Amino acid sequence: MTKTAFVSGATAGIGKATVVALVKAGWRCVATGRRKERLDALVAELGADKVHPCVFDVRDGETMDAAIAALPAEFAGIDLLVNNAGLAQGLAPAQEADLDDWQTMIDTNVSAMVRLTRKLLPGLIERKGAIVTIGSVAGSYIYPGGNVYAGSKAFANHFTLALRADLHGTGVRVTCIEPGMVETEFTMVRTGSQQASDDLYRGADPMTAEDIADTVLWIAELPPHLNINRIELMPVTQDFAGFRVARDKD
Ligand SMILES: NC(=O)c1ccc[n+]([C@@H]2O[C@H](COP(=O)([O-])OP(=O)(O)OC[C@H]3O[C@@H](n4cnc5c(N)ncnc54)[C@H](OP(=O)(O)O)[C@@H]3O)[C@@H](O)[C@H]2O)c1
After folding, report:
1. Separation of 71 CA from ligand 1 center, angstroms?
2. Mean pLDDT for the chain?
């Protein structure tokens, strides 16, 4: 029987690649995002019987609820939720950061993710489905300027593990994927600069959106008795930032 996934943030990067990978493997996908033309292009590429576009801002809870309530019957039974929509804004130290950027990250990466998960949970339990959340290594390892983004991803990582406890005995599988550097529109969104994005990824041989999408697909298609709790991936070129010491000047 064809299974259905709900992928938030499918207009770019990891979410888009996940929809492509799942559809190629025989899944149907609800693909969400704010950029309608990108979702329309996905439908044109993969087929309206395989992809259902849902245009909404995840921070707008009422519109999200209405879009879910209006899903056509063949897309309404969700077997897999991929909590992917998210972003970082800014790299300034906390003492200089823009509070609006902080609020946007909390609203998107935390509040909207929690609301979407809660909304789809009853159906996922009924169907013994799965939840895959895209957390981040930023939730485990601190770097300067990470501040609220890192905090929001620590929440995503930990909330996902906490869900496992509450879903005990339901058969629902829950996984947090925690990637390091993936070349997507992420850095462009974070900095507002294509140059900064190109500079970050140049010569770094970063992971691709397809690397993470293949991981989502692998997890989604594991036998039902097996749960990957969390999985951390990095490009070979990336490792841990290490500790710094601020010294008195002589
Ligand atoms: N790239 C990395 O190095 C990296 C590493 C670790 C974790 N991650 C995580 O991976 C996830 C995907 O990021 P990405 O790297 O693929 O970035 P991306 O290319 O910028 O894609 C982000 C996606 O999230 C959606 N999104 C953002 N805000 C939204 C909102 N308010 N409402 C609806 N959709 C929204 C965007 O859609 P619209 O703009 O069309 O709405 C887009 O489809 C994020 O949770 C990110 O934190 C990324």
Report:
1. 22
2. 97
